[in-house]
Amino acid sequence: MAGSDTEGVRPAAPARQWRWTRRRRDLAAYGLFLLAAVWVTSGIWADPAGRVASLYSSDPAQVQFFLAHSVRVVLHGEFPFYTEQFNYPDGVNLMANTAILALGIPMVPVTLLFGPAVSFVLLVTFGLAGTAAAWYRVLSRHVVRTPLAAAVGGWFCGFSPAMLSHANWHPNIISQFLLPFIVWRVLVLTRSRRPVRDGLLLALLVTAQAFINEEILLFTALACGVFLIAVVVQEPARWSAAWRPLAAGLAACAVLAGALLAYPLYVQFAGPMAYHGLSDAVRDYGNDIAAFFAPGSPTLGGDERANVNLAPNYSEENAFFGWSLALLTIGVVLWLRREVLVRALAATGAAFAVLSLGERVSWWDREIVTGPWEWLVRLPLLDAVVPTRFGLITSVVVGVLLALAVERAWSLRSVDRRTVRTLTAAGLVLALLPIAPLPLRVVSRPPVPEFITADRWRAYVGPDQTLVPIPVPSMGNTYGMRWAAATNLDFKIPGGYFLAPRNGNTGDPGRFGGRPSGVGQLLEEVASTGRTPKLDDRQRRRSLDELRHWRAAILVLPERQQNVEPLRRTVEQLVGPGRRELDVWVWDVRTLTDRRP
């Protein structure tokens, strides 16, 4: 009878135990990085077209212009490396202006559907999260075994104060998701059994990074070189086994990358509107020594006012680790000083920290001595580098050192392992909490006029004519660039924000903006002061000559423009009365600027 009671009843299957697999850990880390990036950019996501990072808004407008250019490259087959859609008729060398083609072309569907402003904030978000995820991937697979160690290192590489600072305006600089793989492929070459194949893979990564940001690629190459030298100096025997595969791989990389980049680089350095060397306005940008011990402005412990003299500007806070992290990093190096890897990393980070100080080494804005950058700044390629950005390399080194420190602490064979891990976690919180990211501060910006978005301008502007925004686009007045970007560059504009040869001659040193414009400077002064000048016939003739040079069809002044009335009266002195159309004042100047007999 007992057997009959249980007959036909199957034993209950054991419940599946949920396992924290590698794949799940990876997805959790990637999700954390993405949530953090959305948190940082949340202020802009609330209204991508109407908000921009505070203090300075020119770079986002420039990037949005480049994103719209990518649309024209894909849909109309436009030449990718040069354009006349702004700074007409001279044009702009886009290879020399970081046109982010490797980011803009994949974003074409988003730009077409939602506009360049949405593409911009999406790139910033993915730039932060993608960089953190890429470093986590490389660290977890090749450097450390503890997932927390890789997550800490990836987190700092993606969300360091330097990255948060550039997140305000520079998606090309924070999009560093290829760099961990480039670094790893270089290291693989030192022991590769198939160096040619590995060199060709490296060439593809190098080529893609060149179309994101060449300056960051140059930094990566320099950092790899310094790191390898630091390793070989400590262990010379490594060189005999490493130099052959490394040489073969780098040769293969140089051949393929050189072939792929030969023409773009020719356009960049010898094509129209090419320049050699940066503007004097940024060439001496350097970090203050005190910047390494202060928290970054866009962080929990940051103080924007206190940092004002420690960095060139709010978007170039390339150090700013804070006292606790700076001391912790020094402590990690002292603790792990017997390891070749740690000593090589420390030498690399220190070397580029020194270079980031620029031509004049200072402490709390007081000059101390001349820096080594004084003797390097005129070398080829280095003359196009902003020295403060060498601090980005130091930030990556700190991230890797943090990963190694967590890994070593987690692996300690001590009596009380739980206490060691608790102290490690407490140390990380103490070091990283003051520089925890905050949402980027934003300000509102005027919308693109309805006159532009409703295509009313098309009734006036022909394919070889320009629409002239008032004030004329320049480094400080980039709203007109946003107007053009909103139409996917269907009309040309004069002026703009870009780098060009100082005197308009290919090969001259660079400067921000094109040839000096009399009417542009006049209207910019009126816009900033609100004073209406009284113009004479000579000024009118010169202004008309400039408008003819630009082949201007219409001048457009938004009603919401600051000091709109003084600007309107000034323009009327130049070309006569205008008329209101939708939300702008319009001056049809085609009869004045038509150069046909």
TrEMBL record:
Residues 79-377 form the DUF6311 domain. Keywords: Membrane, Transmembrane, Transmembrane helix. InterPro entries: DUF6311. The chain crosses the membrane at residues 27-46, 113-136, 148-167, 173-189, 196-212, 218-234, 246-266, 320-337, 344-364, 384-406, 418-440. The keyword Nucleotide-binding does not apply. The keyword Coiled coil does not apply. This is DUF6311 domain-containing protein.
